[in-house]
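User: Design a sequence. Structure:
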């Protein structure tokens, strides 16, 4: 009040209107007023731009108004994703259709910021600072429910999500450690045949990939262009190579290639690196980030997902899951993981490091009924005490299998080879071998692959809640697929192919004498690369010769006639 009085008193002191000093003051006053108003305006805009917003999951009731059409899948899936579905006889269905743009537009008009959407679960992650807006939106007919997933302002979690339980400096005498985690799975059987993941695409969902763009362990990935892409689903403006080290160490279990130091379980594979985890906090929104990343991976056509992540407890305890939710089909992240499998992706997920805690149980999405939940063992094949235990709620066998997770040999946070422990590392060790198995058996579907890995386990005949089916043997898994998937390829066959093995000639016989034109026959390698192709009219016997230029080993002969296609595994040998 006193300052206002003083201002009023000063205003009573008038100078003559034509006084030059007063005229200058008036002009400066106008400039100051305009400048002051401009500063206030900028401040308000800035405040609006940085206004803290809560995050929510909006579950939509249907997909009315979606512009995607199932008979035009190339509009929303890559050709590689379509080929993967065709190869495994997986139909394009309504879950592949995008979320309704009509509903998204309505959410935007209401005032929501769209973060990302899920076509599989038919929902959207949104942000707003207006809680009244959320209450208003709940009344809209197209919205099933809205769930709070992350507060606007969060405190850094008191406990680190990822801890290097051991970190030993590299000693050349310890090089054998990388070999041990491979040989424990009898992975050398596939590696000796040249199956090291070439042509297989793996998506890694994690919390950051610190210095993958500079560490020498990933030189071969960079130089050969096998880091196919990156994306941050937590903060699209960030550089994932400057985020947490955890995903980098996970990647090294699979893709590192430093001969004489460390080689991963699938060093020839290609990778997408996705950040879905916010390491600084733990909220339900990270499950939605995970699903968004998995859907994107599916659209790109990846073959394998590794996720060394898991959820059951959050910084906001009202979001916590109960053990009863670990039933293989309840949490959103588990639903998304199951759906990825149904789209033809082999999904590996860490079972969790809760074995020594009060919780003890495995965590989502490793509980998924379609997911390969991976426990941890040590050098001797004994369960690591920290490895989460099963079963899934309801009794399903979990974890499914186990791999080296105690003192796993990898690239540590400092960029040098060493050891660290956790199911975070047993999962990628196994996922890399899964990629090698796909390369060796390209026409096996994910159900067959998962079953082969489980049936090759060291305790398949007597699974338990500690290690599930035990430690897989990838020679046995490969043999299982060679027998079972070949049966599936030729059941009730219209055609027969002989001889097998062959040298440079083949006889293709029409066993049912069905008529047709434009019969296409091609021969490809196990990576799916076409090596020979020709077209024929329907005949009882088709003679093919001059095949001596084909490589020796296992080849796939495909016969396509009208809407049907049959595949035969053949072996070409030298004379």
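Assistant: Done.
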């Amino acid at each position: 009040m006193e300052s206002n009085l003083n201002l009023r008193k000063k205003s009573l002191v008038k100078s003559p209107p034509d006084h030059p000093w007063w005229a200058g003051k008036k002009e400066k006053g106008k400039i100051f007023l305009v400048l002051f108003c401009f500063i206030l305006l900028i401040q308000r805009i800035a405040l609006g731009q940085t206004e803290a917003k809560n995050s929510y999951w909006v579950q939509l009731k249907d997909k009315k108004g979606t512009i995607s059409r199932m008979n035009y899948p190339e509009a929303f899936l890559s050709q590689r994703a379509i080929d993967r579905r065709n190869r495994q006889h997986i139909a394009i269905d309504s879950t592949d259709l995008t979320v309704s743009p009509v509903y998204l537009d309505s959410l935007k008009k209401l005032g929501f910021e769209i973060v990302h959407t899920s076509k599989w679960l038919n929902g959207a992650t949104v942000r707003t600072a207006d809680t009244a807006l959320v209450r208003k939106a709940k009344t809209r007919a197209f919205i099933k429910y809205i769930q709070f997933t992350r507060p606007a302002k969060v405190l850094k979690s008191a406990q680190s999500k990822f801890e290097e339980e051991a970190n030993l400096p590299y000693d050349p005498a310890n090089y054998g450690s990388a070999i041990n985690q491979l040989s424990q799975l009898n992975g050398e059987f596939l590696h000796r045949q040249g199956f090291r993941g070439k042509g297989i695409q793996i998506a890694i969902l994690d919390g950051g990939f610190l210095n993958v763009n500079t560490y020498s362990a990933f030189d071969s990935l960079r130089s050969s262009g096998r880091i196919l892409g990156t994306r941050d689903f937590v903060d699209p403006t960030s550089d994932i190579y400057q985020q947490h080290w955890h995903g980098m160490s996970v990647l090294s279990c699979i893709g590192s290639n430093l001969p004489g130091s460390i080689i991963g379980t699938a060093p020839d594979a290609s990778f997408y690196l996705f950040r879905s985890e916010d390491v600084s906090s733990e909220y339900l929104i990270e499950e939605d980030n995970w699903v968004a990343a998995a859907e994107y991976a599916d659209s790109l056509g990846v073959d394998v997902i590794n996720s060394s992540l898991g959820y059951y407890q959050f910084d906001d305890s009202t979001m916590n899951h109960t053990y009863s939710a670990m039933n293989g089909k309840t949490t959103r992240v588990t639903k998304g993981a199951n759906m990825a499998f149904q789209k033809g992706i082999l999904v590996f997920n860490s079972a969790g490091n809760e074995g020594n805690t009060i919780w003890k149980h495995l965590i989502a999405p490793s509980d998924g009924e379609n997911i390969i939940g991976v426990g941890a063992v040590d050098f001797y094949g004994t369960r690591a005490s920290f490895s989460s235990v099963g079963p899934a709620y309801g009794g399903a066998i979990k974890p499914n299998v186990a791999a080296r997770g105690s003192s796993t040999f990898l690239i540590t946070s400092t960029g040098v080879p060493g050891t660290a422990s956790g199911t975070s590392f047993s999962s990628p060790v196994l996922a890399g071998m899964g990629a090698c198995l796909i390369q060796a058996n390209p026409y096996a579907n994910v159900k067959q692959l998962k079953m082969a890995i489980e049936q090759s386990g060291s305790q398949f005949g007597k699974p338990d809640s500690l290690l599930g089916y035990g430690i897989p043997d990838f020679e046995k898994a490969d043999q299982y697929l060679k027998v079972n998937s070949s049966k599936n390829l030729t059941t009730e066959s219209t055609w027969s192919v002989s001889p097998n093995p062959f040298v440079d000639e083949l006889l293709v016989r029409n066993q049912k004498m069905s008529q047709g034109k434009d019969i296409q026959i091609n021969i490809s390698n196990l990576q799916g690369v076409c090596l020979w192709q020709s077209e024929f009219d329907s005949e009882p016997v088709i003679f093919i010769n001059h095949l001596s230029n084909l490589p020796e080993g296992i080849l796939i002969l495909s016969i396509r006639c009208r809407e049907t296609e049959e595949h035969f595994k053949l072996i070409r040998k030298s004379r």
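The two ends are 107 Å apart (CA to CA). Residues 1-26, 45-49, 166-176, 487-491 have pLDDT under 50 and may be disordered.
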